[in-house]
UniProtKB/TrEMBL annotation:
InterPro entries: DUF2909 (IPR021313). Keywords: Membrane, Transmembrane, Transmembrane helix. It comes from the Bacteria. It comes from Parazoarcus communis. The chain crosses the membrane at residues 37-60. Pfam families: DUF2909. This is DUF2909 domain-containing protein.
Amino acid sequence: MRIVVIVFLVLILVSLGSALASMLREKGSSTRTARALAIRVGLSITLFLMLMAGFATGLIDGKL
């Protein structure tokens, strides 16, 4: 589960970087930027739901 969370965090950062690069490159309204940010939001929501399910099922305990 730890590896899955790390992969999702990396994908979220890549999507955010892609949106930033697209915004800086095109200097205007772009569907690429909006799409990259929508993907980031979708990945964030999916990660949040997976973490909640992991806590609920006992795959993730609250201890460090």
